[in-house]
Amino acid sequence: MNAWATVTDTLTAWKKRGTNLNRRSAFWRRRIALFLAVVGPGLITSNVDNDAGGISTYSAAGAQFGYTLLWSLIPMTIALYVSEEMCARMGVVTGKGLSDLIREEFGFRSTFFVMVAALFVDLFNTVAEFSGVAEASEIMHVSRYVSVPLAAIAVWLLVVYGSYRIVEKIFLVACGFYLSYVLSAFLAKPDWLLAAHSLVIPTVHFNAPYLLMVTGLVGTTIAPWQFFYLQAGFVEKRVGPRQYKHARMDVLVGSISCMIIVFFIIVCCAATLNVHGLTNITSAKEAAQALVPLAGKWAGGLFAFGLLNASLFAASILPLSTAHVICEGLGFEAGLDRKFKEAPAFYSLYTALIVLGAGIVLIPRAPLWKILLYSQVGNGIWLPIVLIFILILINRRDLMGVHINSWGFNVVAWTASIIMIILTLVLIYTSVVPQAGAEAGAFMHRHFF
């Protein structure tokens, strides 16, 4: 009897253990399913900022300064997460886009300024993305007069005829193609220990080129259009307060994955271009071409493919963000789940931006470098204003209820915002006044050395 009782007790214990395991398994399956249902806006928005202009900046940072700027990625990740999380929270809690909230809380004049800035800045940014398509295709020996029109038609058809779910799935797949930069970095055979050391131990040089590159990294990683697209994305997915934790996790995963790709781009160029003295790289196209003799054709080809993917990705989303900003601000219907007849202003504006952006790139001897400069300056002017709007709105208790910023989050948010504002103002000044960099270098040399 004792033996039989022991066997029975053992079987009962196993059964209970199996039931508990099944419950835990069901719990985690449910949690993962909820996260996958929400994931998208945060991951897409963060990664699309690794566009043609961003990749050019990251390549130049690795080529000119080696591994020494890797430490800046950690504070940049925090700043990116904090700024995007506030927009995600506003979208989830209010169910409204950022332009809607600005119009309702600050009036039409403020909204009109935001819309005008969005239109001009994002048009220049769209030109920059199609310029990246042209550069990547020319590396692959395809004329821009073939690749750019095909790219414009492809992104237009995708957005106009695809539903939000289809478009989002394709964008998420595009995020995966950024892994080409990871492979390029491994093929470059970098000094991983030195890279890890530079990531966690800051190495700061008080000279103008170094500080301006830090400013450029921040300016190209955090752009105003991101906030509008991110918030609109959660609103379109109808993510509510109950799914806020999953939305926040989506933003966190997006911010970290974005900076991981930046890490590998800088490491790839540091291990090849910087080591061999090719420090004058100014664009992603030059970086991809220079990688071929140093790290092999596969590394150069993967780098060029990453540039093409990033440019197409951004060329799809930037006009979408602009169309959302303007249509929400004016009260027009907007969103990918609406047909052309239901939202004609939204799709017409998107079409116009695609046509203009691609068309300017095809103009012979078009001053693309000036357009890139103006887009950078425009982002710098627009960013502080949008950040201040966000910080005021997120702390409105009548709007956000219990979801306003905590005291600690406000300290981090305001600190990060003030630093970003200062850096972008410096970037504007040095971009508009060419001799400013030399003057800043002379000043630092007199006072720090």
Number of helices: 20
Gyration radius (Cα, Å) is 24 Å
- Ends distance: 89 Å
Shape descriptor reads: globular
Q: Looking at CATH, which topology would you report?
A: Amino acid/polyamine transporter I
- Shape-level CATH architecture: Up-down Bundle
Strand content: under 5%
Q: What are the low-pLDDT stretches, counting only 5+ consecutive residues below 50?
A: 25-38, 440-449
Number of domains: 1
In short:
81% of the residues lie in helices and 0% in strands. The chain is mainly α.
Which secondary structure elements does this structure contain, and how are they paired or packed?
Elements: H1 2-38, H2 41-48, H3 52-65, H4 73-94, H5 98-106, H6 108-139, H7 144-161, H8 164-176, H9 179-187, H10 192-200, H11 208-221, H12 224-236, H13 244-274, H14 284-295, H15 297-330, H16 344-362, H17 368-394, H18 397-400, H19 407-432, H20 436-448
Helix pairs in contact: 2-8, 2-12, 2-13, 3-11, 3-13, 4-12, 4-13, 4-17, 4-19, 5-6, 5-15, 6-7, 6-14, 6-15, 6-16, 6-17, 7-16, 9-13, 9-15, 11-19, 12-15, 14-15, 15-16, 17-19
Q: What features would you describe in this structure?
A:
The chain is mostly helical and 449 residues long. It has 20 helices and no strands. It has helices at residues 2-38, 41-48, 52-65, 73-94, 98-106, 108-139, 144-161, 164-176, 179-187, 192-200, 208-221, 224-236, 244-274, 284-295, 297-330, 344-362, 368-394, 397-400, 407-432, 436-448. Helix 3 (52-65) runs antiparallel to helix 11 (208-221), helix 6 runs parallel beside helix 14 and helix 17 (368-394) runs antiparallel to helix 19. The longest helix is centred in the first third of the chain and has 37 residues, at 2-38. The N and C termini lie far apart (89 Å).
